[in-house]
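STRUCTURE:
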């Protein structure tokens, strides 16, 4: 049984236009031509959501502030079977290319769901105004930064934490 080396992104976009499928097809054809190994492990899933799907909760009510202007999800997966002639750098490059070429406009830095965060994404922008509070919670419950599932949000250092007035003042 083969395993895959994967890169992922769940990009949020406001609309899907008439030429979306053509751009998606062209991106995938370029991906296959660039590296046949990528053809075996790559995909693009489109989730067409009703407007209320991402805006039913207030931005401060959850850890991730749901964007109010993005209504659809593009799940990109770019990968290759382990042992094939390919690199993670190339997979990331093709992922970024897809994020620029497939949507009507390139995906903005914060317009990602936090499910899959790759190193070229800005975690602070994904979590927006909630990022500081998440760091405070991380500092209280995981000061050594041991618990991480996909996204690393660093706890405050002890000296910075004291300057902030401790945890109880902020939560």
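SEQUENCE:
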């Amino acid at each position: 049984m083969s395993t895959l080396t994967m890169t992922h992104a769940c990009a949020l976009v406001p609309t899907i236009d008439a030429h979306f499928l053509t751009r998606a097809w062209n991106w995938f054809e370029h991906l296959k031509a660039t590296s046949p190994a990528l053809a075996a492990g790559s995909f693009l899933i489109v989730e067409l959501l009703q407007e209320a799907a991402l805006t039913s909760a207030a931005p401060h009510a959850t850890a991730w502030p749901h964007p109010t202007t993005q209504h659809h999800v593009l799940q990109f997966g770019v990968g290759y079977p382990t042992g094939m002639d390919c690199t993670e750098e190339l997979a990331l490059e093709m992922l970024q290319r897809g994020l620029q070429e497939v949507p009507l406009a390139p995906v903005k830095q914060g317009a990602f769901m936090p499910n899959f965060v790759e190193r070229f994404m800005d975690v602070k922008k994904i979590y927006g105004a909630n990022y500081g509070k998440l760091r405070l919670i991380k500092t209280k419950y995981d000061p050594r930064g041991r618990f991480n599932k996909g996204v690393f949000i660093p706890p405050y250092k002890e000296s910075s934490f004291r300057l902030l007035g401790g945890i109880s003042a902020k939560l």
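REMARK: The chain has a mean pLDDT of 85.
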